[in-house]
Design goal:
The complex is a heterodimer of chains A (401) and B (349).
Chain A lengths: L5 E10 L5 H10 L5 E2 L12 E2 L13 H6 L2 H17 L10 E6 L5 H12 L15 H11 L5 E4 L5 H14 L5 E8 L3 H9 L23 E9 H6 L6 E10 L12 H14 L6 E5 L6 H15 L8 E2 L2 H4 L6 H15 L1 E2 L22 E2 L4 E7 L4 E8 L1
Helix pairs in contact in A: 1-12, 3-5, 6-12, 9-10
Chain B lengths: L1 E3 L3 E10 L2 E2 L2 H9 L5 E2 L2 H4 L5 E2 L13 H6 L2 H16 L12 E7 L4 H14 L16 H10 L5 E4 L5 H15 L4 E8 L3 H9 L13 E9 H6 L6 E9 L7 H8 L8 E6 L5 H6 L5 E3 H5 L6 H11 L5 E7 L5 E8 L6
Parallel strand pairs in B: 6-7, 6-8, 11-12, 11-13
Antiparallel strand pairs in B: 1-10, 2-3, 2-9, 2-10, 4-5, 8-9, 10-14, 13-14
Helix pairs in contact in B: 4-6
Chain lengths: 401, 349
């Protein structure tokens, strides 16, 4: 990523661990997880009955009834988190509509509503067609652009679990290169029967809250939510007296070209992507204080990511904790990269390295520092965030104060 | 937002569409004024007179082993096959290049929807016993780009985008950026989409099936981008040069003209304009390109969310060396894209 330094001037968060940045920050600092029993749909047929669902959510607390009916659950989450970020930043009044855009990552999108329509069709019922309105992941960006009048670039990355990390990297590049003055970047996704049944059918869902990098871990806990950041050039942000939370220094991405669901066991491509992200960011690996892991809690993924860390940081790897905030947020799929980017920026601002929750025992194949014992104080100014996905899509981002 | 380029060439292209495999069948239809649209079976809509651009003659087994084909969804079969054809057209033997210097960014239409519906139908009809785990990985929209990278072996930048009828153009823009930044020497880009009976049922339920509107289509259009230096080093055939990309997310109230002026800045110098998505339905666009030779590819093969790849490939195939061409894509709620290209010669300049 070449060009001017890109800073974060606004953040929004809406997920099972917190319905705004303040709540989420408290959860991050105290190790409070959003994973609990699910009641969004019937989960009784499955091995796992838990996840990080946004509980006590009433769309009418946020939208007029007429508006709420037109937005899928994902669209609603996206609009809420995007609104928080824009309000926090105050940037929108400083630029013309065509200078501001939205780049976000999507996943299952409006599938939760689409499932109701499909089930009705199979049962011979006529469900309302508007349930299909948000079936494609691009609807959320369209709604956000329309509601907040962001008329510049509009795009949705759909690379499953790495979607929103790539979307933030691309948005930062659009700002750094001067193509846009301000970008709203992030991701939104919700729980759905499709993903819950899908991951359960693949036997990669832990019946207990996920335990990344722990001995005996059995897989992921699913989650839902949305997170957004407002990105501007540092000089523009300073000129308007904006509060600056941090910077997106660079990102890199690749396809492993190995297997649709299994990562390359050696972690070589993941390591290359992390190195390329550091190169793009012009950051020496010695400056990286910790890495927010993809850290799903699946037996294979956690080992691969640990192996990649060793390849990137070499002898220094014991001093670079690899932590997973998914034990707090669940795996929010298309929104995961954005939620983890915001978590990373919050932690850098708070001077902590977050805890990886739910330690069950030391796995000899995961032999790095994961902050299982608790969060720790840190004065580091640079951290990385990794996102891996079905299809072998890998994105790594470098963030700093 | 308008970006100009000086360093990106197009060295190969391909298409799989209702017209058949390759660009020639589409060009022949466009020349003759015909189309490859067929009747939508009566039982899907309980009505006659509706058409679609269904790809009927495609056999994935002609491009890959039957076992591999069975693992893939239809969008992925299109993408993997079209990617192979585009690489061949570009004269690229991937064994000669570092895999991390070759990448892919695809626009996805309804990719993953048919597998999602099949997977969920199994559950709704038979409970957990009806779930077919093998289908689930193919429910993600990035499956086509991922399978293409796995089958052809490229490990460079890899992404999938969807943004209404401009999904392929969105992908094209990002792929150009990765060449411009030097992240890759070769990028495959374009779009892939599929059309299944359930989607017709859904479109009808949503009131989107009208005899007066352009029919929906499916297929893939892939373009091979290279840095000019890389293409020159390997003495590649240059089929075109990317000159500019303009992107508008949506029209700002009261400032619509500003957007359309920006989008059509470059039309005057162009010998040919291709229209994609719903651009051919927009009076504000049609007024500004009035009198110019134009091609609406969707008329011949049907429209899809990711048809921009095929449309761009047709534009390049129709330009003489040095001629300028313009590609305009639009969606009803936005975004809008304009891509300026210059025709290349079949040999290295």
């Amino acid at each position: 990523m070449s060009g001017k330094r890109v800073v974060i001037t606004g953040m929004g968060m809406f997920c099972g661990a917190g319905k705004d940045v303040t709540e989420f920050t408290d959860a991050l600092c105290t190790g409070r997880s959003g994973i609990q029993p699910l009641d969004l749909f019937d989960v009784s047929p499955f091995v796992s009955h838990i996840g990080s669902q946004i509980k006590e959510y009433d769309p009418l607390d946020y939208f007029e009834p007429r508006v709420a009916r037109r937005l899928s659950r994902t669209d609603q989450f996206g609009v809420i988190a995007a609104g928080q970020a824009l309000q926090d930043s105050g940037a929108a009044s400083s630029y013309s509509p065509y200078e501001m855009g939205v780049s976000m990552g999507g996943g299952a999108a409006g599938m939760f509503q689409g499932e109701i329509w499909l089930k009705g069709l199979l049962e011979g019922k006529n469900e309302r067609p508007s349930l299909l309105h948000g079936i494609l992941p691009d609807q959320t960006a369209t709604d956000i652009a329309r509601i907040y009048q962001l008329c510049g670039y509009q795009g949705t990355v759909t690379t499953a679990c790495s979607s929103s990390a790539t979307a933030i990297g691309w948005a930062a590049d659009l700002v750094a290169s001067g193509r846009q003055k301000m970008m709203l970047a992030g991701g939104a996704d919700t729980l759905s029967i499709l993903t819950f049944a899908g991951f359960n059918s693949l036997r990669v869902v832990d019946p207990n809250p996920c335990a990344p990098f722990s001995l005996g871990r059995q897989g992921i806990s699913l989650g839902e939510g949305a997170a957004f950041v407002v990105l501007e050039r540092e000089e523009d942000a300073l000129a308007r007296g904006a509060r600056i939370y941090g910077a997106v220094l660079g990102y890199a991405l690749a396809g492993e070209a190995h297997h649709m669901t299994a990562p390359d066991p050696g972690g070589r491509v993941a390591a290359r992507v992390m190195r390329e992200a550091l190169l793009q960011a012009d950051v020496d690996p010695a400056r990286v204080g910790w890495v927010n892991a993809h850290g799903t809690g699946t037996p294979l993924n956690d080992v691969v990511e640990s192996n990649a860390m060793k390849l990137v940081f070499g002898e220094r790897v014991p001093q670079v904790p690899l932590v997973s905030t998914k034990a707090m947020t669940g795996h929010c799929l298309g929104a995961a990269g954005a939620i983890e980017a915001v978590a990373t920026i919050i932690a850098l601002n708070r001077g902590i390295i977050p805890q990886t929750l739910n330690f069950r025992g030391r796995d000899p194949e995961c032999d790095l520092e994961y902050c299982h014992a608790g969060s720790r104080l840190s004065d580091c100014r640079v951290a990385m965030s990794n996102s891996f996905a079905f299809g072998g899509n890998i994105t790594s981002m470098v963030l700093s104060l | 937002m308008k970006t100009t380029f000086t360093n990106i060439v197009i060295s190969g292209s391909s298409a799989i569409s209702a017209a058949g495999t390759g660009l020639v069948p589409i060009q022949e239809l466009l020349r003759s004024g015909g189309d490859a649209l067929s009747e939508i079976p009566f039982e899907l809509l309980s009505a006659e007179g509706f058409r679609w651009g269904k790809v009927n003659g495609f056999k994935a087994s002609e491009f890959m082993s039957p076992m591999k084909a069975r693992k893939m969804d239809r969008c992925s079969q299109f993408a993997v096959s079209a990617a192979g054809l585009a690489l061949k057209d570009a004269g690229i033997d991937l064994k000669q290049f570092a895999p991390e210097r070759v990448g892919i960014v695809l626009g996805s239409g309804f990719c993953g929807v048919s597998n999602s519906a099949e997977f969920l139908s199994g559950y709704f009809n038979s409970g957990v016993e009806g779930l077919i785990p093998m289908i689930f990985p193919n429910t993600v929209p990035n499956a086509p780009a991922s399978y293409a990278s796995i089958e052809h072996g490229f490990q460079g930048p890899n992404a999938t985008l969807v943004q209404r009828f401009c999904s392929a153009e969105s992908a094209f823009m990002l792929a150009c950026r990765y060449i411009e930044e030097g992240r890759a020497d070769i990028m495959l880009t374009g779009g892939t989409d599929e059309l299944i009976p359930l989607m017709i049922t859904a479109f009808a339920a949503m009131g989107q099936m009208k005899r007066s509107s352009a029919p929906f289509g499916e297929g893939a259009g892939i373009i091979v981008l290279e840095s000019a230096e890389h293409a020159a080093r390997r003495q590649a055939p240059v089929k075109g040069v990317v000159e500019s990309i303009t992107s508008i997310g949506m029209l700002a109230a009261g400032r619509e003209d500003e957007a359309f002026e920006l989008l059509t800045d470059g039309v005057d110098a162009s010998s040919l304009v291709t229209l994609s998505g719903t651009a051919a339905d927009m009076p504000a666009i049609l007024e500004r390109i009035s009198g110019r030779p134009m091609i609406d590819t969707g008329r011949a093969i049907g429209r899809s969310l990711a048809m921009g790849g095929s449309s761009l490939a047709i534009l390049l195939a129709s330009l003489a060396a040095g001629q300028q061409g313009y590609h305009l894509a639009a969606s009803p709620e936005g975004p809008y894209f304009a891509i300026g290209v210059r025709g290349g010669s079949s040999v290295q300049p």
